[in-house]
Write a structure and sequence with these properties.
The chain is an alpha+beta fold. It is built from 11 helices and 10 strands. It is about 45% helix and about 15% strand.
C-alpha cells in the first residue's frame, strides 16, 4: 500500500481531481438553477393569453364550440376546449390549461358551470389571475375574471354562451360580441365568427392582432363519423387573422356538409346523404371532387341522369378524374351507359377527395 504524504504527486493529483469535480458540479447546478428561476419569472407573462373568446352551444343542432382571437402566437392551441354532448371551455389570462380538460371532465360528471368555477378557482394557486368561460351542452354558462387580470378585463354570459376578454380596448368589446352572437342568424360557427368580428370592430385586443381559431364539435361529425370535430380551424400567425379565419371558415363549413353526406353514404343511408351533398355542391360550385361525390351519391339514391350531370361537371372542372371514374366501383351502374363512356374517354389520373 502506498503511504500518502503532503506534497506527494498522488495526493496533489487527488486534490486537483476533487476540486475539479466540485467546481464542475457547482457550475452544473448553477446553470440548472438559474434558468429555472428565469422561467419561473417569465412563465406568467408568457402564459398571459390576452384575448377575447366565446364558448357557446346550439342545443337544437347538437353543436358546441369556441372562437378566440389574440395578439398571441397560435392561440387556438391553448384556449379552446370542447367535447360533443358535454360542453366547452375557453381558458385564458396567465392561462392554466388544465382548466380546459378538467372543466370538461367536471361537466361530464354533472357539475354546473357555476359549480365548476368554484372547484377550479378553489384548487388553483393564482385564481386572481385566471379568466375562463364555460358552457354546458344544455346551455348553462358561467364566466370568471380574476381581480388581477390585466385591464380591461371582464365578461358576459347567458343561456348558451359565455364571453370573456382581457387586455381589451374596453368593455364595448364583450358587449358587442354578445349582441352579435344573439342577433346573428345562421350556424353556430357563423354566429361565433360574427362575435369575433364584432369584438375586433370595437377595439379587440388593445395590443393588436396575430392569431385566431374556431372549433365546433358535434357527435360523429368528423370525417367518416369517427371523431366529433365538425370544424377545427386555426390561424396561428397572420397579419389579418380575422380575414384568414373567415376564408377558412367558408371552406370548413362546406367540408362539414361534405363529411355529413359522405358519412351517411358509407352507412348506406343514400337518401339521407343526398341533401347534404346537394347543399355542398351549392357551396362549392367550382370544386370538381364535390361534384364527383355528388354523382356517386345521386347514383346510389337512384338518380342516374342527375348523376351523369354531376359527373359531367366534375370532369369539366378536373379532367384528371376520368381514370378514377372508369375504375370506381361506386359508378359500376354507369359503366355501359353511352354518355358515361363518352364523358370518361381519354386519359387522366385519379385525384380522389377520399383518402
Amino acid at each position: 500500500m502506498h503511504n500518502i504524504q503532503y506534497g506527494d504527486p498522488l495526493t496533489t493529483k487527488a486534490v486537483k481531481v476533487t476540486i475539479f469535480i466540485f467546481i464542475s458540479l457547482s457550475i452544473f447546478f448553477h446553470l440548472l438553477y438559474v434558468p429555472l428561476q428565469a422561467n419561473e419569472c417569465e412563465s406568467p407573462r408568457k402564459s398571459n393569453i390576452a384575448t377575447f373568446s366565446i364558448a357557446a352551444c346550439d342545443p337544437s343542432a347538437g353543436e358546441i364550440g369556441v372562437a378566440v382571437a389574440s395578439r398571441f402566437f397560435a392561440v387556438g392551441h391553448v384556449v379552446p376546449w370542447a367535447k360533443a354532448g358535454v360542453g366547452a371551455v375557453a381558458t385564458q389570462s396567465f392561462v392554466n390549461t388544465s382548466f380546459g380538460w378538467r372543466g370538461l371532465e367536471l361537466l361530464e360528471m354533472g357539475l354546473t358551470p357555476d359549480e365548476i368555477v368554484n372547484v377550479l378557482t378553489r384548487s388553483d394557486k393564482n385564481p386572481e389571475q385566471r379568466q375562463f368561460g364555460i358552457v354546458s351542452a344544455d346551455g348553462k354558462s358561467a364566466t370568471f375574471t380574476g381581480e388581477k387580470c390585466l385591464a380591461w378585463a371582464g365578461g358576459r354570459n347567458g343561456p348558451n354562451y359565455a364571453i370573456q376578454g382581457n387586455i381589451l380596448a374596453g368593455e364595448a368589446v364583450v358587449t358587442a360580441m354578445e349582441k352579435a352572437f344573439l342577433n346573428t342568424k345562421g350556424t353556430l360557427a357563423e354566429r361565433l365568427y360574427a362575435a369575433l368580428l364584432a369584438g375586433e370592430k370595437n377595439g379587440g385586443d388593445s395590443r393588436g392582432k396575430q392569431s385566431a381559431a374556431l372549433l365546433v364539435v358535434k357527435e360523429n361529425a368528423g370525417y367518416g363519423g369517427y371523431t366529433d370535430r365538425a370544424i377545427d380551424i386555426r390561424v396561428d400567425d397572420h397579419a389579418e387573422p380575422f380575414k384568414e379565419l373567415g376564408r377558412l371558415l367558408e371552406y370548413a363549413q362546406m367540408n362539414y356538409s361534405w363529411n355529413q353526406g359522405w358519412t351517411l353514404f358509407t352507412q348506406k343511408k343514400f337518401t339521407a346523404a343526398l341533401p347534404h351533398m346537394e347543399r355542398t355542391a351549392e357551396m362549392a360550385p367550382a370544386n370538381a371532387e364535390v361534384f364527383y361525390d355528388l354523382c356517386v351519391i345521386r347514383l346510389a339514391a337512384g338518380h342516374k341522369e342527375k348523376a351523369l350531370q354531376a359527373l359531367k361537371k366534375a370532369l369539366q372542372l378536373n379532367p384528371k378524374l376520368k381514370n378514377q371514374a372508369r375504375n370506381d366501383n361506386d359508378l359500376e351502374k354507369l359503366r355501359k351507359n353511352p354518355e358515361f363512356i363518352r364523358l370518361t374517354k381519354g386519359g387522366g389520373t385519379p385525384n380522389p377527395k377520399r383518402p
